[in-house]
Amino acid sequence: MALLQISEPGQTPEPHQRKRAVGIDLGTTNSLVATVRSGTAEALPAEDGRVILPSAVRYLEDGVEVGYGARAAAGGDPYNTLISIKRFMGRGLADIKHFGEQLPYNFAADTAGMPSIETVAGAVNPVQVSAEILKVLAQRGAESLGGPLDGAVITVPAYFDEAQRQATKDAAKLAGLKVLRLLNEPTAAAVAYGLDKAEEGGDVADKTIAVYDLGGGTFDISILRLSKGVFEVLATGGDSALGGDDFDRAVAEWIAVEAGLGTDLDAATQRKLLDIACAAKEALAAETSVPMAYDHWSGALTRDGLAELIDPLIGKTLRACKRALRDAGLDTADVEEVVLVGGSTRTLRVREKVQEFFGREPHADIDPDQVVAIGAAIQADVLVGNKSREDLLLLDVIPLSLGIETMGGLTEKLIHRNTTIPVAKAQEFTTFKDGQTAMAIHVVQGERELVKDCRSLARFELRGIPPMVAGAAHIRVTFQVDADGLLAVSAVEKSSGVAAEITVKPSYGLEDSDITRMLQDSYANAEEDIAARALREAQVEAERTLEAMLVALQEDGAELLDERELGELERAMEALRLAHNGGTPEEIRNRIDALNTLSEPYAARRMDKSIKRAMQGHSLDEFDKP
Amino acid sequence: MKLQQNHFEIFGLPQTYEVDRQVLTKRYRELQQEFHPDRFAAKSEREQMLSMQYAAQINEANNTLKDPVARAQYLLQLAGIEIHPEQTTADGEFLMQQMILRERLEDVRDAGDPEAELEELGSDADELFRAQEQAFSASLGNQALDAASAALLKMQFLAKLRRQIDALEEELLD
């Protein structure tokens, strides 16, 4: 076990060296990367100056194209151009068929239960496609910051379940990114506006925040509660098929009627009308009336005219807001801050109606396309260690309950929704047959009673249970959910202390071996030296471990260790140093493990000491004062 | 590995039923500031794993201590008594009272003003719960563990009733 480097508040143990960290908004339609420079967070542009990267990936026989070029090709090369892939993350083929729309892709189920899409470059899955988008953004970040990235915060929708979060993290791994944290999109938006910060001279107040996110094709509403430093998602809602594109459609239909074009329009005419509609919609942000022309027709669209066309659509979003508030047990009057996210909130009518609904002016100063990436960048800057620790601590909750399947297809909830993460829950199981040495555990996520109504996450198979009579073996299974909302399971037979061997079969995801294989494939394609990378990774881990140990020993090695222990540790450190300087990755890993095992008692003593210290200096009556 | 301390010791709180929620919350945040995995996001994998275990334990301790029933169960557990969450009381008079309360709950839908009736039922249940809390606290203080166990069983009953009242309230709102 390694040592935790606990530093004094306000101090950074490392010499001050800025780390390269970015925040990434991996969106359904568009993606962005942002970073903090000279104290300010900003979205990073591509060479052409545009910050938005359309989330479109086109597979060619000899390569991959990501962004504007790919999106433009979607019409001409639909089978090889993948758009809105985010909707398929962590989903099975059956789920996608349920989306009930005509998708041009050639789907096949792959071994991992994930959809696999046939392209001219071979079959690809949603994780690989997302990784291509992330690679472009990571590259942009590295070029802009002048070197390889130390880490990234990637945003996900608040309602994403474990499988969807895991798929996002897997995509980052494939793209070669170190994920500092998966952050909820609405939380990132709130962070961008500094809503987590304390009021002038006071403590952080309890606040209820509504994040209204209207993109091109999706609408999300999230109700957040910020209380005592905990960001809690109270409720989420929305419409996955409603966005600014629908505004354009409404305006285009109006033009068609006004110009007497009839209803049976060819694709090219439709496209032309949509472009005119979109341009007019955007121009109305600055003008009160814009002239329009198509063919022999000319006319004008006023703000009032636009309002009339899109009010029914905005009304739909507000009804979703009402539902979300009711789910949260709140009223519009309880909402203290409203944040606007998504390009379609630029439409003035949307702002007016949102303001009217909540009865307060929404935050809209930050570019609504960039606000999520900017919040992620601010959090990345803190997590990577560039900013002092006081600034920000986001405690997240698990969005959906985790449970296991019990007799009769029923769900037994182990970890309830809205529990603060990380969290661990242990459950005891026993054998029901004499000599039984294996058992299976089915983990599901959701709020419903029946397993079939929840989402299947994974099946865990325990093996190596010592043979005993039925009911004698007590297997303690620990379900651990980390700060990103990802699940890990471990098991031990209590009477014998034997750790059961666990095989995980994600229901719609990748196994570790799949990722390793895909990584190898992608390295082969990029002609990168996989061995060199493995060695470098092991060396970095060795450096981190040695540094942590050195700092710890300087601090309290003499106090907490006797001479023999100290000598053993120093020898193990020297062995690791030697391995670091000339060993293979395996040798380095082995030495790290050896040092970690040896330092376990020391780690425990340090931890107890620092807990005592954290509690020191507090007398009971100190807290009585308001 | 585990923290050596029990949930009360982690927060430096006296091992009693009465817990100052403000102190608990303040110390909870101080500890998470120190041990949350976000503080180790740029550190070694082992440090990250260890910090996750500690943060999980701090969360568990906080969740246990801030919930009245879980806290009472935990205090008895520390005294060597395991009370199952579904275990029922054998107190006939109490059971009779419970039956009446449950009948009132079932009749709420048909009442002239369901919301007002539900509100009244809720405040009655809360009052009974507070009385059992006091009984639990006093008994535990006197080391009368049997009496404390009996009070906890009633608290569990009343907490369950409270959840059903809340669920019905949500239903009525729709």
Automatic annotation (TrEMBL), chain A:
<comment type="function">
    <text>Chaperone involved in the maturation of iron-sulfur cluster-containing proteins. Has a low intrinsic ATPase activity which is markedly stimulated by HscB.</text>
</comment>
<protein>
    <recommendedName>
        <fullName>Chaperone protein HscA homolog</fullName>
    </recommendedName>
</protein>
<comment type="similarity">
    <text>Belongs to the heat shock protein 70 family.</text>
</comment>
<dbReference type="InterPro" id="IPR013126">
    <property type="entry name" value="Hsp_70_fam"/>
</dbReference>
<dbReference type="InterPro" id="IPR010236">
    <property type="entry name" value="ISC_FeS_clus_asmbl_HscA"/>
</dbReference>
<dbReference type="InterPro" id="IPR029048">
    <property type="entry name" value="HSP70_C_sf"/>
</dbReference>
<dbReference type="Pfam" id="PF00012">
    <property type="entry name" value="HSP70"/>
</dbReference>
<keyword id="KW-0067">ATP-binding</keyword>
<dbReference type="InterPro" id="IPR029047">
    <property type="entry name" value="HSP70_peptide-bd_sf"/>
</dbReference>
<keyword id="KW-0547">Nucleotide-binding</keyword>
<keyword id="KW-0143">Chaperone</keyword>
<feature type="region of interest" description="Disordered">
    <location>
        <begin position="1"/>
        <end position="21"/>
    </location>
</feature>
<dbReference type="InterPro" id="IPR018181">
    <property type="entry name" value="Heat_shock_70_CS"/>
</dbReference>
<dbReference type="InterPro" id="IPR043129">
    <property type="entry name" value="ATPase_NBD"/>
</dbReference>
